[in-house]
Amino acid sequence: MARFLRKIDRVAGLPPGSLVFVGEQKMEKPRIRMIRYDEQAIEERTIQGLAQLDPLTESGRIAWINVDGLHEAELMREIGQTFNLPPLMLEDVLNTDHPPKMEEYDDYILISLKMIFSGPGKYEVRAEQLSLILGAGLVITFQEREGDVFEPVRQRLRRDKGRIRRMGGDYLCHALLDSVFEHYVKVIEIFGDRIEDMEDEVLGLSNPNTLQEINNLKRELRYLRKLIRPSREIALELARSESPLLGGNIRPYLRDLGDLSLQANDALDIYKEMLTDHLNIHNSLMGNKLNEIMKFLTIFSTIFIPLTFIAGIYGANFDYMPELHYKYGYLLFWLVLLVVAFGMLRFFSKKKWL
To answer: How confident is the model at residue 55 (pLDDT cuts 50, 70, 90)?
Structure first.
């Protein structure tokens, strides 16, 4: 399946706000989990029915609702009705190929971006759509499947580490985005370690699969760049936002998100340049190696040209050739060949062609 651009035939021609899932179903049945907390206590539970959501989110505590699985449009419609989410927002949530963006509504902020993981192969990238909705005392995250990069945030909430339990939903939103951005850096580091270790292989031409690996890494870095590059603009938009959902004390942390995103993008650029350098060095060394081979074959052929000429003359079918009946003619023939060959080698060596 194409990773850089996918068909969207299922939504073509439908009015804006139509709730149609666009993407690949990645789990059998959606799952809804909630973490509700304040400075004194925390509660975790799996939501069995949407009727449980209203009393849980009206308790005055911060509520984090996580939805795994986006393929049931009817469930998404019910969630939208429960929290009064705009249809256009839900349409973006259901489109798993939607480009990363941040959008402000009257009562909510929507942030859509990609979570990335190492794929089945160590140097493969797997991406998943993440939609994060920030409301008053409420954070809703939508994921395509179970499994995410948020476990460190959950552990901080459970252990009451740092300021996360004492601050509002905007800080939780920051913590979740920070986990996503930090994972960007971790995945890039996996590729970076391999790219930096390839230098000796490239210089020594010791691995016959080096060229293929370089091209594979370049493809994955291009894909990573497509996924990660918009995160910088999202972080900047959040830092500039005047939404009342983002308190003044959260601004420094949002600017830190921008720095983390810039670090990830800069690392991508550096490793992309390193791969280009590796490719150029590899091609240059292969060209030099080919030139050395051609040089050897040319000298070899040049030496045999006069030898072939002499052998051709004495291989002619003439009855009267003076040297044919000479007693030492055969030895003299070989002596001439050796003198010519060593003479040409000495000449080539003197000219520094060898």
So the answer is: low
